[in-house]
């Protein structure tokens, strides 16, 4: 790789990062308006829309890695992202000036946390026991359980008002 290609890659990466930073700032503003207009509440909008939109880069990277046959990159991307997101929550708590961040988080998130813990455990079990084939049509049993848990959580969040 020559220096010119390196410069193009770094500048492209920086431009994409700048777009993400700008979009993230705007997204926070619009999420409040969406919550107000739909009457869903900020917690539900955060769990459903914000989480989906902010996870799109991970989805794109994982799908690109799968297309290249880099299965480890796809898994490491998602697991590393989850670890880093939890770390960010700790950083947020450091900068939150009104006491503990965890104490002031909406109770709506408790069910989500519980489901996320179960989903993480299912992924860990899948990595430990490595199923040889897909058992439920196109899905492995682990993926099937994760999809069911996710759909149940999203349904609950939409129904609960």
Record keyword descriptors for this entry.
161 residues, mainly alpha, 6 helices, 0% strand
How does this model look, in words?
Helix content is 82%, strand content 0%. It has 6 helices and no strands. It starts with a helix and ends with a helix. Helix 1 (3-38) packs antiparallel against helix 2 (42-67) and helix 2 (42-67) packs antiparallel against helix 3. The model has no long low-confidence stretch (mean pLDDT 83). The chain is mainly alpha-helical and 161 residues long.
- Please bin the fraction of helical residues: over 70%
For the termini, the CA-CA separation is 55 Å
Provide the structure class. Answer: mainly alpha
* Percent of sequence in beta strands: under 5%
Instruction: Give the overall shape.
Output: globular
Overall mean confidence score, pLDDT: 83
Number of strands: 0
Low-pLDDT stretches are: none
Q: What summary fits the major beta sheet?
A: none
**With helices defined by DSSP (H or I, 4 residues minimum), what is the helix count?**
6
């Amino acid at each position: 790789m020559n220096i010119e290609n390196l410069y193009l890659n770094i500048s492209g990466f920086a431009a994409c990062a700048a777009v993400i930073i700008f979009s993230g700032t705007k997204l926070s503003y619009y999420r409040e308006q969406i919550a107000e207009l739909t009457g869903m509440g900020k917690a539900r909008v955060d769990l459903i829309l914000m989480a989906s939109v902010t996870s799109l880069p991970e989805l794109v990277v994982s799908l690109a890695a799968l297309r290249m046959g880099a299965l480890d990159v796809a898994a490491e991307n998602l697991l590393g992202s989850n670890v880093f997101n939890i770390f960010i929550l700790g950083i947020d708590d450091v900068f939150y000036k009104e006491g503990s961040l965890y104490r002031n988080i909406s109770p709506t998130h408790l069910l989500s946390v519980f489901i996320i813990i179960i989903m993480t455990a299912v992924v860990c079990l899948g990595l430990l026991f490595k199923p040889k084939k897909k058992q439920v049509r196109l899905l492995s049993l682990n993926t099937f359980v994760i999809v069911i848990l996710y759909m149940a959580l999203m349904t609950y969040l939409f129904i609960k008002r």
